[in-house]
Write a structure and sequence with these properties.
Layout (H helix, E strand, L loop, with lengths): L20 H5 L3 H23 L13 H13 L8 E2 L2 E2 L24 H12 L4 H4 L4 H20 L15 H11 L1
Helix pairs in contact: 2-3, 4-6
Length: 186
């Protein structure tokens, strides 16, 4: 938004869906989905208004309604306290904007056990059906062993011929009655 310079847009002006793209890029993933759906609704309303100018106008959200909708959605999802930013009687203050130092990915640094291949192993294990709780805290070697085991089982299931399900004998409802009658005759 800053790339275009500061434009004076009144808060009551209708939203142009193209201008929501930079906002969507800067939001957390869960809010991106919500704002993306807002953008699609706004675009749909604009399209309806263009296609049917004689009919009743569809509501196009204003710039004041968009942040309000985002805040309400955040409260519904439990991401913020609806009481106005207090938590436990204390005021929640924004964090300082000091740049964080670069994290070391070398041995002896803060992530001394970092293994770049571990992320790929995690993804493979999750795709093969391993629960996240099992993977947490495991070394890369343990996860690799689990992936190999799961891949072997998946390979066996693909190669094994599918046996037909066992057939049940279809008995006539009168079969039990016939057996009783034969037992009485003897």
């Amino acid at each position: 938004m800053y790339d275009r310079g500061q434009q004076e847009i009144p808060m009551t002006a209708p939203v142009d869906p193209r201008h929501l793209r930079p906002l969507i890029r800067g939001l957390p993933d869960a809010l991106k989905i919500h704002v993306q759906s807002l953008r699609e609704r706004i675009q749909g309303a604009i399209d309806r208004n263009r296609q049917n100018p004689q009919g009743p106008a569809a509501h196009v959200m204003t710039w004041a309604e968009v942040p309000h909708s985002i805040v309400v959605h955040g409260h519904e999802m439990g991401w913020a306290e609806p009481s106005g930013g207090t938590e436990g009687g204390r005021k929640v203050r924004p964090a300082s904007c000091k740049p964080r130092p670069e994290r070391s990915r070398t041995r002896g640094g803060s992530d001394r056990d970092y293994d770049p291949g571990r992320d790929g192993l995690w993804r493979k294990a999750l795709a093969l059906g391993a629960p996240r709780a099992v993977l947490h805290g495991q070394s890369a070697d343990d996860i690799r062993e689990l992936v190999e085991l799961l891949e072997g089982k998946a390979r066996e299931q693909r190669e094994a011929p599918a046996a037909p399900p066992p057939r049940e004998e279809k008995r006539s409802p009168f079969a039990a009655l016939r057996e009783e009658l034969e037992g009485l005759k003897n």
